[in-house]
Amino acid sequence: MNLRPPAGAIAITGFMGTGKTTVARIVAERLGLEMVDTDELIEAEAGMSIPAIFAAHGEAHFRDLESAALAQALGRGRVVIGTGGGMLLRAANLEALRRAGPIICLTAGPDAILRRVGDDDSRPLLQVADPAGRIAELLAERRQAYAQADAHVDTTQLSPEQAADEVLRLLADDPRARWLTGARTTIPVALADARYEITVGCGVLDEVGALWPPREPGVRAALVTTDRIAPLLAERTTEALRAGGWEPHLLVVPDGEASKSLAVLGELYEGMAAAGLDRGGTVFALGGGVVGDLAGFAAATWMRGIDLVNLPTTLLAQVDSSIGGKTAIDLSGGKNLVGAFHQPVAVVSDVGTLATLPPAEMRSGLGEIIKHACCFDAEMFALLERRAGGTLADDTAALEYLVSRNCQIKAGIVEEDPHEQGVRAVLNYGHTVGHALERAAEGWSLRHGEVVGAGIVAESRLAAWLGVSDEETALRQERLVAAWGLPTSVSGIDEEAALAALARDKKIVSGRLRLPLVPEVGSFRIVEDVSIDLLRRAVRSVLAEGWRGDARR
User: Fold this and answer.
1) Which residues fall within 8 angstroms of residue 162, CB to CB, at 6 or more apart?
2) Burial 74-84 (b: 16+ CB within 10 A, else e)
3) Is residue 284 a contact partner of residue 211, using CB atoms and an 8 Å limit?
């Protein structure tokens, strides 16, 4: 399996006369990337000019050639693509460009466009009696297609160099573009008693030894991972650690929640002792949430606490559990009953490792991403709405953006409330109901992200019932959960078991609790004194299909 950084593209598109080709060349030169012009590819392939293609074969044939040229351009590696003005008119072209990277659309006023191209006989679509009217007509036809771009730059009053400056400014703020130029995103986490950095990128696992080197060469480290991840990533990670000066010792535990046990923890301690891990050593946790919890708790308690570096390999761990310092193991009486806050000294999230995940695990990670979007980021929510029904598995640019943005959100909350005494309660949105469903499912058969999705649906309905939000806000969240393949209701769950699990929630005091709710997308409100009876109704609403309306009636 190839987990190395794939090819990708920054697309510069827009209407004729907006400066696409010139600006794309300047941007490519400044970024050190190849520039590919799709119109040039078309003319080279067809052996004739674009006006000649239109004259001989018509626009429909040209659009076919344009799609083929795009596929050829995307196969050239990491590039800046200057597209023809009609490239986004085909949905397949738009989706291909979205998967490859950010799309920047250049715009200009109709008068400016006419001045720039009105006398250009190489523009077949303007060879009419009224070119100004034709420009206005085409702009109206393409307005919706151009609106699908990630950002827009009005070049009416800009020189090509100034337009390129603006494009580069937009790209500098877009994590989706950074991996194309070999850059990575670094998110600082500054706590009162600890400071560390989260590094996000594609291929950064190969740099882990350099990103977090030992104090001196030869320091021993434990690389903890599972028997599923080890064949895929252990050798590569071990090589990266050795290259940085570490002496790594691989410790492999069984995959799955059952490894978060006293028995496996004991075996891990024995392995750390056999490796000679002393107080100057470091635990590197390579895997998902189970490895992070188990290895993190081992690091927190080994010789009263040694350094921990999280190397999350699941979407859920990258956007949530690897940040914040929560570690734990399970007992027969329940999950995470024994634990400690132990902040990592570094987090290195390689989005390329997400290629190891089955689709169900990718969907599970989206539960936490949707939660963050609901509470903190209306723009990210809208992006997920636009991409609904698609896939993230092969979309490195979107994954890096989502992981980076969600890390920023989680880091900001952890900084403000490192020990869950205040505002960090907002991170429990969807979790009060979700945890009840998770505990009631036989054999813990529901994934965490799945129950968070159903929990968001239930708690968004509760917000509408309380008058905290309107019904459309609740329905919008439900539609997004469903669009990304997460459940809006669950079956096979005993209602009494779910309600009993709900009653054991540690946040409930005297039959009432503080609950984070979403008044409108991108914001949150901590609601005091929520009735447990109303919460039970919310649980019941996702144990059966359909919207139940106002639960207070």
Assistant:
1) none
2) beeebbbbbbb
3) no
The first and second tokens of residue 115, run together, are 């001045």
Tell me the pLDDT tens digit for each residue of 360-418.
888 889 999 999 999 999 989 988 998 887 777 767 777 888 898 999 999 888 888 77
Residue 72, domain extent:
8-176
Active centre residues (catalytic): 304, 326, 368, 410, 420, 424, 428, 431, 435, 448
Tokens 């309306």 correspond to 549
- Whole-prediction pTM: 0.71
- DSSP label of 285: E
Residue 442 sits in a domain whose CATH number is 1.20.1090.10
Q: What is the pLDDT of residues 170-218, one digit of tens each?
A: 887 766 666 566 667 889 998 888 899 999 988 899 999 999 999 999 9
289-306 pLDDT, tens digit each: 999 999 999 999 999 999
Q: Is 517 left (phi over 0), alpha (psi -120 to 50) or beta?
A: beta
CA atoms of 318 and 331, how far apart (whole Å): 25
Q: How far is CA 477 from CA 371, 382, 485, in A?
A: 9, 11, 13
| H or E segment to which residue 27 belongs | helix 20-31
Together in a domain, 166 and 214: no
Does residue 546 belong to any structural domain of this protein?
no
Q: Is 494 helix (H, G, I), strand (E, B) or coil?
A: coil
